[in-house]
């Protein structure tokens, strides 16, 4: 059974590229673009891996992640966070929120794919 | 007071630095303690063998005692010493350094000032990178667009077949994203160029204005004579200043012009002759407020008064918005002044004119007279507390003024007073001997 990744990102062309790369690798990809309803979508979709952008309309990726970590069903969900800000303090903020992996834009397709694969491996 | 009449003050300062009591130095110099006391308070001239003997006891060159150096320079050197990491500057010999090598001391002070400005530039730019919402949004959009282009281009460049529909889609995405990237880049460059033209707030506007006012001697003949309007003068003098500094300068010049019109030199001069540089008496005689008299005294050209005066103005938050220091009454270039200045006390007693003898310790210990008053800004409003602004004028003390002037500092960092209930942060000077 193919594994399921949920991509929460508001940039349409990034969504399209990542969706293509992961689908070609055998993943089932769902996408979502709104920060405000992101937590509900995660609970509804129950993905194996979550790719989460930091700057989203309505709510930041950090806030979404903190909320997810408070729920028993999503407290262990592997999360890869994407951000245009790769400074140390941004990484630290992501780590405090409970992130599993962190990638600064622009990233390479192969690195992103490897990261998602490694997060899905127990 | 001429600088060569301050030898006694310098002797007192060096004695305190050496940890000697007055009686001990008097005994070692073979004079009576009461005579030394008169010398230290500049009431007896000193020279010849006695000066050489005292210099020998204090282990300094005689000219260090007779020539000294300006308090502002000393204060700047002490501030510079506070930046030294891993080494300790010989703070107890700072006066000697400034006195013996005035050129090197000035160079050090200027270098430090330059470093301060550059550090502030870096801080401002860093701050802008972090907090400027337009810049952050632009950079975020550029990186997101570059990410999309890179991903799509990599997909297209990788070996292997891609369905024509996907191929077309990624080509279209790259085309759209490259156009978006070009727009964002152009917009960002325009924004940064505009910010650069406006001075980019990378210097300290208040310091720019202070430097200009110091260079002009805080006196503007064209405004005194009504030959120029403040706006034109601000444009002329403010060439090369940042927009913010020019705005500050215009505010100061506008007030100057209004002050000169209300109390012209022709009216001030006879009052000055009759009352001396006493702002309260001048204000009473002229029928104006004391703050106006203080400003007018500080606006007089060099040589108009027997001794120059210092003026500090602060807003209701205590922030210094105007400074005219004296060689013997230093003011901090940045940040807050000494909380003991009557200037700040005046804010707690609006409309009361305070007069107090003060001295800045660690220097010539010269006694000065400080006048301070806080007055409301703008007209009264019903049921609204007035917004206050405080002025402090510092003049040479009159003979026979209070024997125990209030010791005040410049700013805590370079003030030796300890203990001091007003201290905000430790001094780099340590405990006085």
What would you say about this model in short?
Chain A has five helices and five strands; from the N terminus they run βαβαβαβαβα. Chain A has 122 residues and is of the alpha/beta class.
Rg from Cα of chain A: 13 Å
- Gyration radius of chain B, to the nearest Å? 29 Å
Name the CATH architecture of chain A: 3-Layer(aba) Sandwich
Largest inter-chain contact set: A-B, 17 and 19 residues
CATH topology of the domain at 302-433 in chain B: Beta-Lactamase
CATH class division of the domain at 302-433 in chain B: Alpha Beta
Q: How many discrete domains of chain A?
A: 1
Detail the topology: elements first, then pairings:
The complex is a heterodimer of chains A (122) and B (433).
Chain A: E1 4-8, H1 12-24, E2 28-32, H2 38-45, E3 49-53, H3 61-70, E4 79-83, H4 88-97, E5 101-104, H5 109-120
Parallel strand pairs in A: 1-2, 1-3, 3-4, 4-5
Chain B: H1 7-18, H2 22-28, H3 33-40, H4 48-58, H5 62-66, H6 71-82, H7 94-100, H8 102-131, H9 133-157, H10 164-197, H11 205-215, H12 221-224, H13 230-237, H14 243-262, H15 265-275, H16 279-286, H17 290-298, E1 310-315, E2 320-324, H18 342-346, E3 354-359, E4 368-377, E5 387-396, E6 406-407
Keywords (chain B): DNA-binding, Transcription, Transcription regulation
Protein name (chain B): Helix-turn-helix domain-containing protein
Organism (chain B): Thalassococcus profundi
């Amino acid at each position: 059974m193919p594994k399921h990744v949920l991509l929460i990102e508001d940039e349409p062309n990034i969504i399209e590229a990542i969706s293509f790369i992961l689908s070609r690798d055998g993943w089932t990809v769902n996408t979502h673009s709104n920060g405000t309803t992101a937590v509900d979508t995660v609970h509804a979709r129950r993905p194996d891996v979550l790719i989460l952008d930091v700057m989203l309309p309505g709510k930041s990726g950090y806030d979404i992640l903190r909320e997810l970590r408070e729920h028993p069903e999503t407290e262990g969900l592997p999360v890869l966070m994407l951000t245009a800000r790769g400074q140390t303090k941004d990484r630290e903020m992501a780590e405090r929120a409970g992130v599993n992996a962190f990638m600064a834009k622009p990233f390479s397709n192969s690195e992103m794919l490897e990261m998602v694969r490694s997060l899905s491996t127990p | 007071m001429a600088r060569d009449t301050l030898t006694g003050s310098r002797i007192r300062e060096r004695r305190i630095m050496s940890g000697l009591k007055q009686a001990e130095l008097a005994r070692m110099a073979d004079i009576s303690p009461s005579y030394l006391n008169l010398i230290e308070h500049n009431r007896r001239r000193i020279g010849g063998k006695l000066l050489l003997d005292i210099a020998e006891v204090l282990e300094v060159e005689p000219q260090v005692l007779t020539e000294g150096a300006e308090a502002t320079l000393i204060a700047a050197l002490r501030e510079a010493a506070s930046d030294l990491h891993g080494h300790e500057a010989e703070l107890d010999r700072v006066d000697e350094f400034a006195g013996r090598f005035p050129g090197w001391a000035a160079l050090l002070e200027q270098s430090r000032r330059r470093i301060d400005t550059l550090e502030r530039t870096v801080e401002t730019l860093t701050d802008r990178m972090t907090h400027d919402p337009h810049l952050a949004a632009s950079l975020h959009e550029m990186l997101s667009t570059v990410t999309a282009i890179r991903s799509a281009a990599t997909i297209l460049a990788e070996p292997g077949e891609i369905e024509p529909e996907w191929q077309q889609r990624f080509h279209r995405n790259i085309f759209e994203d490259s156009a978006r990237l070009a727009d964002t880049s152009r917009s960002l460059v325009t924004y940064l160029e505009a910010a650069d033209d406006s001075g980019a707030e990378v210097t300290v506007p208040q310091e720019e204005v202070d430097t200009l006012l110091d260079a002009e001697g805080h006196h503007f003949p064209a405004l005194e004579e009504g030959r120029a309007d403040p706006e034109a003068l601000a444009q002329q003098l403010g060439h090369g200043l940042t927009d913010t500094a020019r705005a500050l300068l215009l505010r100061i010049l506008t007030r100057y012009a209004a002050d000169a019109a209300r109390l012209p030199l022709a009216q001030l001069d006879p009052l000055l002759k009759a009352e001396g540089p006493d702002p309260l008496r001048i204000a009473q005689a002229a029928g104006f407020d004391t703050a106006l008299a203080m400003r007018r005294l500080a606006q007089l050209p060099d040589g108009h008064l027997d001794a120059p005066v210092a003026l500090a103005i602060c807003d209701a938050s205590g922030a210094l918005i105007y400074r005219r220091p004296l060689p013997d009454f230093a003011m901090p270039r940045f940040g807050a002044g000494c909380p003991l200045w009557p200037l700040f006390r005046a804010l707690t007693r609006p409309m009361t004119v305070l007069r107090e003898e003060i001295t800045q310790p660690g220097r010539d210990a010269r006694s000065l007279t400080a006048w301070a008053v806080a007055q409301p800004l703008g007209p009264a409003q019903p049921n609204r507390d007035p917004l206050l602004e405080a002025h402090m004028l510092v003049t040479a003390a009159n003979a026979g003024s209070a024997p125990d002037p209030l010791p005040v500092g410049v700013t805590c960092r370079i003030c030796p007073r300890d203990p001091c209930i007003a201290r905000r942060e430790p001094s780099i000077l340590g405990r006085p001997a």
